[in-house]
Amino acid sequence: MSISLIAAIGRNNVIGRDGGMPWHISEDLKHFKKITVGHTVVMGRRTWESLGCKPLPNRRNIVISGSMPLASGIEVRHDAGFLEQYRGNSCEEEIFIIGGGQLYGKTIGIADKLYITETDIPIEGADTFFPKIDLKEWDCVSNSGPIIDGKSGSTVVFKEYERHRQH
Q: Is 84 helix (H, G, I), strand (E, B) or coil?
């Protein structure tokens, strides 16, 4: 089983503003759905709340929170430590960390893959950021090149990174 982080990232590693995503890019949402449907998604409490406290359909939803009560359609875990134990005991192929900034920061060190949507949309008042991707640790294995989103007119690039293999 692999642990993957999936995120849309703007200039300066921006991923959020005021508790939500600072943009609506149709191509990115379709890409996210295509990759995560049928898999487990893990998110922090604030990301859960930004989704309207509704589980993403056709996915196992896990929310990391020390104080959140149980809700229908999700599992609640108190910290991200379960992921390392889960890695060895799960028959799932891939589990996705979908946000937010704190959870990305805690899990990038154990991640096997990154699915990154890059956009250059300028965001004022950004308050949530993706950790810096150290290219000494990651290989870019896929790069879509620029794609124009039909609805927003924004340009996006879909990239996949895999952690360098130890020899």
A: helix
Whole-prediction pTM: 0.93
In the block, tokens 């995560």 appear at 36
CATH number assigned to the domain covering 2-163: 3.40.430.10
Candidates 162, 161, 155; CA nearest to 11 is 155
In angstroms, what CA-CA distances link 99 with 3, 42, 93, 166?
Answer: 13, 8, 20, 27
Angstrom distance (rounded) from CA 59 to CA 71: 15
Per-residue pLDDT tens for 87-129? 766 667 899 999 999 999 999 999 999 999 999 888 888 999 9
- Tokens 């991707």 label which residue? 133
